[in-house]
From TrEMBL:
Any one GO molecular-function label of the UniProt entry: nucleotide binding
Limits of the GFO/IDH/MocA-like oxidoreductase domain: 146-278
InterPro entries per the UniProt record, alphabetical: Gfo/Idh/MocA-like_OxRdtase_N, Gfo/Idh/MocA_oxidoreduct, GFO_IDH_MocA-like_dom, NAD(P)-bd_dom_sf
Gene3D superfamilies listed in its UniProt record: Dihydrodipicolinate Reductase, domain 2 (3.30.360.10), NAD(P)-binding Rossmann-like Domain (3.40.50.720)
Domain Gfo/Idh/MocA-like oxidoreductase N-terminal residues, every copy: 6-136
Entries under Pfam families matching the protein: GFO_IDH_MocA, GFO_IDH_MocA_C3
Domain of life: Bacteria
Native species: Pedobacter nutrimenti
Name this protein carries in UniProt: Putative dehydrogenase
């Protein structure tokens, strides 16, 4: 299907940036993408040095994202980048994304999509106006067993969904790491760079997106409790949210970054009339399926009995672990397969189109806004407003 490698530019992700390397590994995993240019830091000297480390051509190793987008737009169609990957902190998402779309480039962007809900809405509107594609890296929706779970729910195998329990405990911010030289902790706990929520904005949004993605439902009402546990921390580092969904189902969402000893223990349980499912990110190849009137089953990645969506996003035979990097790569792969198919005038398959979009980004920002508003209110339940 794909006729040539898709050319990618990158904004952010240079020296000492954790997520940039993850993005590049994911982008290169299937051999479909070429990193052709970059503006890898907001500091021009660091940007240039980072580009040299990655062997970018000197004439396409840019000192700023504005310089890159404008210069690339002047290059011939067969040379210029085709999409840009934005891997900067939250506050630096919106402007480069808008500029890229204005210059005719597709966009892949780290979550949360923007700094504010209003920015997210403007960005979604720009995507619709331009007819270009935007992909949002909600990584956990890329796992094969998550896709298997979603298809089983959509097929009605569990009947009407009644209860959703999702949690994401981490322990890495149990102490004041932001004051001890940890750069990741410093920007993620800084309201000027991260936004109005810390824990819920960083990982609570992942939990909320996973709940909506697998269940094929939308959160309609919330009752939130946010906590600032570590002394003098400026943003929440722990929280609990009661949920109501648009079909009447209820749920619980817990996110914490002060759960000492936890790593990235994202997990979800969903229950319907006839049975339910259970999935754990730290054991991602297994999906546990539970039935009301039959023994529980274990579904495993790599087997022929899985849905087309699970098989489309698997790379190795059963028993060979596929994890975080592969899930990340699935999002990139589906995105560029969609771009390539559209480029030749084709129709992308449902499996290709199965990646988070600007609409998911708007819902993620709305989740943050609504959770913060609910946590600061004396009112018990709040309608989920966008």
């Amino acid at each position: 299907m794909i006729q040539e490698k898709i050319r990618m530019g990158m904004i952010g992700g240079g020296k000492n940036a954790f997520i940039g390397a993850i993005h590049r590994i994911a982008a290169h995993m299937d051999g479909l993408i070429e990193l052709c240019c970059g503006a890898l830091s907001s500091n021009p000297e660091t940007a240039k040095a980072s580009g040299r480390d990655l062997f970018l051509p000197e004439n396409r190793n840019y000192g700023s994202y504005k310089e890159m987008i404008e210069a690339e737009s002047r290059l011939p169609q067969h040379i210029r980048m085709q999409f840009v990957s934005i891997v900067t902190p939250n506050f630096a998402h919106f402007e480069p994304a808008m500029l890229a779309l204005d210059h005719g480039f597709h966009v892949l962007i780290d979550k949360p999509i923007t700094f504010t809900l209003e920015e997210a809405k403007l960005l979604e509107r720009k995507v619709k106006e331009t007819g270009l594609q935007l992909c949002l890296t909600h990584t956990y929706s890329g796992y094969p067993m998550v896709k298997q779970a979603r298809q089983m729910v959509k097929e009605g195998q569990f009947g009407t969904i009644r209860k959703i329990c999702v949690e994401y405990p981490q322990g890495w911010l149990s102490s004041a790491s932001e004051k001890e030289g940890n750069q990741q902790a410093a920007w993620r706990t800084d309201p000027a760079k991260s936004g109005k929520s810390g824990c819920m904005g960083d990982i609570g949004t992942h939990a909320a997106q996973l709940a909506e993605y697998i269940s094929d439902l939308q959160i309609s009402r919330i009752c939130a409790d946010l906590n600032w546990v570590v002394k003098d921390r400026l943003l929440d580092d722990d929280g609990n949210v009661l949920l109501k969904f648009n079909n009447g189902a209820n749920g619980i969402l817990m996110a914490s970054q002060i759960a000492a000893g936890e790593e990235n223990a994202l997990s979800i349980k969903i229950y319907g009339e006839k049975g339910g499912l259970e999935w754990h990110q730290e054991e991602p190849n297994t999906l546990k399926v539970k039935w009301l009137d039959a023994p529980a089953q274990l579904y495993r990645t790599g087997h022929p009995y899985l849905s087309s969506f699970a098989k489309h996003n698997s790379r190795t035979p059963a028993g060979h672990p596929e994890g975080y990097l592969e899930a990340f790569a699935n999002i990139y792969r589906n995105f560029v397969l969609t771009l390539s198919t559209l480029h030749i005038g084709g129709s992308p398959s449902p499996e290709m189109l199965d990646f988070p979009t600007a609409a998911d980004g708007v819902r993620g920002m709305a989740f943050i806004e609504n959770v913060v508003a609910s946590a600061h209110s004396d009112q018990k339940w709040h309608d989920f407003k966008i």
